[in-house]
Design a protein that fits this description.
This protein has about 150 residues and is an all-alpha fold. It has six helices and no strands. α1 packs across α2, α3 packs antiparallel against α5 and α5 runs antiparallel to α6.
Length: about 150
Amino acid sequence: MEVKFPFQVVEILNGILTVALFWMLVFLVIHLYHAWRVMASHWGNNKGFWKLWKTNKPEIALFTIISAFFVRSGVLWYLRWARNHHFDGMVIVAELDAEILIVFTAIMLIGIACWIRVISPFAGRQAFWLWSGMLVSSLTFGLGMHYWF
């Protein structure tokens, strides 16, 4: 027995994820701003920024990941919404959807590699091989699913 997954459910789930990522991004920006203000109160604005950069790299990498995921999820939701409601959609999203998804997926992968690099208990060569392995395995899986199945 085959059960069809209603397209409205996918649209709803993509919309929920997009809004949840938006709020996660808002609170991450508030967190980074607060951390920068604390650093700036001790060392001044310019030096405080560089202290924030050195001490909050996992949060900055997470910000990169969530920002790209938010845009990517929003584009997928918008494309699904436009198709389901027989709407042509915004020209820039409708015509450049593949390019937008490729660019923001690449940004997410770079953010994930940086996040792995800064939180990894391994240093030096081991950390390099860990995030390189993540990139290679991700690309292999994505391309493999396209070409082999």
